[in-house]
Amino acid sequence: MLYFRYPVYEKNTNINGDKLIKLIDHISLTLSHCLAPEHNKTNQKKFFYFQICTYVFNNDSFYRWLIFTPVRQYEIWRFVTYTFLHAGSVHLMLNVIIQILVAFPLETEQGHGRVLLLYFAGVLAGGLGASVFEPTMMVGASAGVYCLLMSHIPHIVMNFQSLSHRYFRIVAVLVLCISDVIYSIRHCLTKGNLQPRIGVAAHVSGAICGLVFGFIVYQGCGKVSFLRVARYAGLFVYLGWIVLTVVYNFRKASV
Predict the structure, then answer these.
(1) What is the DSSP letter of 194?
(2) Torsion (CA) 55, 91, 201, 210 in degrees, nearest 10
(3) Fewer CB within 10 A of the terminal residue: the chain, N end or C end?
(4) Rg over CA atoms, the chain
(5) Vertex 114, ends 110 and 120: CA angle to 5°?
(6) Partners of residue 137 on adjacent β-strands
(7) E strands in the chain
(8) What is the phi/psi pair of residue 75, to 5°?
């Protein structure tokens, strides 16, 4: 997730779209065989291709139409469409590869629809969170990626006894989260959160959404009473966050 302080952003278009798509396809196929050999087909690949095509073929007017900007709250699509835009080929590749790593196990065990719904719930939460705490122009898929990453926690909690390699998954999630927090803190202290500017509010909002919304949409095999309480609590927290941030944006837009 990257922020931009200026209204005009010139992205680097020096990239071969066909080669990039073939590379992503090769990476996704390889990882699918390693992470989910019994369930190789995934709808996430279609989403990856859409992100790549949006990056390769968009122009300045298209870019300005999709980018998140806090001064146009009534253009509500911007709270979601910013996830299809990226600051450069490295930014795009990094987000796509992380999405592949994080999404494949979830899609295998929870299904494509639930994972896709949770991803866009995280994107929306990230956009709304950024509009409140870091209101500036923004692109990137990190809010959705953090949502998927943290949703592994409710998935593990709700299906602990039936999951294979459950302790390894817990360690992997903790390592990814802690390493990213350390990097973000170091980046803020050493570079003043510049070049690039990390969207901390969007990251945190997406992560919290994954932790909460996962209990709402994921299936579990634990105690029915616990799952019911977790779903109601998650729904209350998520809807409360959406309502409060939407009201804030409406009031800000009317000033």
Answers:
(1) -
(2) 80
(3) C
(4) 18
(5) 140
(6) 4
(7) 2-4, 137-139, 197-198
(8) -85, 75
Which of 142, 151, 155, 205 is catalytic? The answer is 142
pTM of this structure: 0.80
Reading the block at residue 113, the tokens are 């629809």
What's the average model confidence in pLDDT over 9-25? Answer: 48
Q: Between 244 and 5, name the one with better pLDDT.
A: 244
Give catalytic status of residue 203 as yes or no.
yes
Q: Check residues 8 and 105 and name the one with the higher pLDDT.
A: 105
What would the mean pLDDT of 172-200 be, rounded to a whole number? Answer: 87
Residue 81: other Cβ atoms inside 10 A: 18
Quick one: DSSP state of residue 159? T
Return the amino acid letter for 240: G
CA atoms within 13 A on the CB side of 225: 0
155 close to 238: Cβ distance less than 8 angstroms:
no
Match 């992997």 to its residue by tokens.
Answer: 172
Q: What are the tokens at 138?
A: 């923004």
Cis ω before 196 (30° cut-off from 0): yes
How far apart CA 235 and CA 109 sit, in angstroms, is 22
CB 181 within 8 A of CB 203: no
pLDDT digits (tens, 9 = 90+) for 78-129: 999 999 888 777 888 888 888 888 888 898 899 989 999 999 999 999 999 9
Residue with tokens 């802690």: 178
pLDDT, residue 117, reads 94
